[in-house]
Amino acid sequence: MKKIFCLMFISILVAFAKPTVYILATGGTIAGGADNELSGAYKSGAIGVDKLIAAVPKINEIANIKGEQISNIGSHHMNNDVWLKLAKRVNEILNDENADGVIITHGTDSIEESAYFLNLVIKSNKPVVFVGAMRAATSISADGPLNIYNAVSVATNKKSFGKGVLLVMNDEIHKAREVTKSNTTNVATFTSPNSGKIGIVNYGKIEYFDDKLHTTNSEFSTEDFKELPKVDILYAHTTDNGDLVDFCVENGAKGIVIAGMGSGSLYPSVEKALVNAMKKGVVIVRSSRVASGSTDMGPGVNLYDEKYGFIAADTLNPQKARILLMLALTKTNEIEKIREIFRTY
Ligand code: ASP
Fold first, then answer.
1. Where would I find the L-asparaginase N-terminal domain in this sequence (predicted)?
2. Is 29 noted as a catalytic residue in this protein?
3. In CATH, what number does 20-208 get?
């Protein structure tokens, strides 16, 4: 009995510790339904907010979720009346000190208009995040549930405060002022052609691009060192081998940046050679030969970093990761400190 009371007490404490996020549903493909999971001819706004929330039970682990239905229409039917109702309700919610953020589910056709309208009339620094989907809730590989999970992650992240109204879809974070729909059917439809996206979010892991330290806030100074340590870059490929890793180590490299495949993945022989290099005190940073994305997300983080102590270059390309690693090595050889440096600059 005592144990049950204890468990109840703990779960009440946990519920209070979690942020409270409202999901206001307006309709759209994200709430769309069809009889056939392969049909593009679905009805927008066929599913209610409770079902949308029930499809993503994991969001309850990161927030206290409260759902409300504002409308249930395709966003090509969006109008001023719904906007006014929505804006009024969002302001009311965010004025409540117990509310931490608002998510608005919306059709993608006019989501950019509603988001920009709210961006101009909401009076709060708390996160307001629009989210939609390109595939109906009943479709094969529906993109709505993961988009909602990512939207809740963004709305509950402290770094999302004060950024204005945001749109989260397809692992990307965009500002309402900049974002626009760019493709009729593709899940990668949203772009910000003038400014670009402001961040990325992958299974709830968030990275904003605008919070990296530099210049006056940089801890590095040319006063502190006479020369930069030797750091080499290697380029990964199939049927790769570890010879060049060994060569770098024999020739005095203090660090190696590997331009890995995909999210910084490695061919087995190179993985082995890099582990040996690390045992000899060489610091290993995983970047990617792929042009965009973070190596601090995706499988490499647990396949290599947690297992061996390699360091993800984050979104730095190999040539910039080399510069940061050289500077980091003028300060420290400690892996966790260098890992932190790669998340900071
Ligand atoms: N026509 C739909 C809507 O805007 C399209 C979508 O949601 O993707 O509601």
1. 21-211
2. yes
3. 3.40.50.1170
